[in-house]
Write a sequence for this structure.
């Protein structure tokens, strides 16, 4: 891991200025600042994070490519909102399961924004069928679910988040001991950070520690969706495209 901080206060300074001047003229004249303060440090972080992430599951992706990798574009998609501000006012990266382009799959996500930086993992707004599969896995092995979401290590490093349904889904007893878990619309863990924490030398170490604490939770979700987690895992064969998506990078 790098002995120097990946991020500096310049990253947040640039994003604050971008929020005040969210137009093409300003961005083009400050593009070098974006590349030096935001893009390059984030790509370096992703590259250093890659071997650490692979220790938890070889199917999780941390891709430091400048384009098409883990780093998300700062440019907004304006096809349906041509009059909207053209740039994102945060910097973010996704670290998904490598089946994510073929099917719904869990992943990690890092979001850096003034006064709103966080690291999250799991499934955000999964479709009805996916939620049902997660609920079924929870009901099939409630002790395992409680262990992966309520362990000391998990609670010391992150917490569960996301919205709940107004009432238990059909077929779920309102008095079920895990009724609140079964009402989840999202299956997410997250941890928030102050700007000085993001810019600290140990930020990557902290992210890796959160991954370690939440890995059993991520594994539970992954296996509930019949996706591989560990090298050598065998999964149900559904179609050729899916087989290809499970190949290790």
């Amino acid at each position: 891991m790098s002995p120097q901080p990946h991020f500096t206060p310049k990253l947040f300074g640039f994003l604050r200025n971008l929020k005040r001047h969210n137009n093409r003229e300003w961005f083009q004249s400050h593009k070098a600042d974006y590349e030096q303060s935001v893009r390059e440090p984030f790509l370096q972080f992703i590259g250093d994070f890659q071997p650490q992430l692979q220790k938890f599951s070889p199917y999780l992706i941390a891709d430091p490519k400048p384009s098409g990798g883990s780093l998300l574009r700062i440019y907004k998609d304006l096809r349906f909102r041509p009059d909207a501000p053209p740039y994102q006012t945060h910097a973010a990266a996704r670290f998904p399961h490598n089946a994510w382009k073929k099917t719904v799959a869990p992943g990690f996500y890092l979001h850096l924004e003034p006064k709103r930086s966080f690291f999250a993992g799991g499934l955000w707004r999964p479709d009805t069928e996916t939620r049902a599969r997660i609920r079924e896995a929870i009901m099939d092995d409630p002790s395992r679910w409680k262990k992966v979401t309520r362990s000391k290590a998990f609670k010391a490093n992150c917490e569960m988040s996301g919205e709940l349904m107004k009432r238990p889904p059909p077929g779920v007893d309102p008095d079920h001991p895990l009724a609140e878990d079964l009402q989840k619309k999202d299956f997410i863990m997250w941890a928030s950070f102050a700007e000085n924490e993001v810019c600290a030398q140990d930020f990557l170490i902290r992210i890796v520690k959160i991954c370690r604490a939440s890995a059993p939770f991520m594994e539970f979700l992954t296996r509930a969706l019949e996706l591989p987690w560990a090298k050598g895992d065998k999964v149900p064969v559904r179609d050729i495209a899916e087989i290809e998506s499970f190949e290790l990078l």
In short: The CA atoms of residues 216 and 229 lie 10 Å apart. The longest strand covers residues 117-123. The two ends are 22 Å apart (CA to CA). The chain has one domain: 9-227.
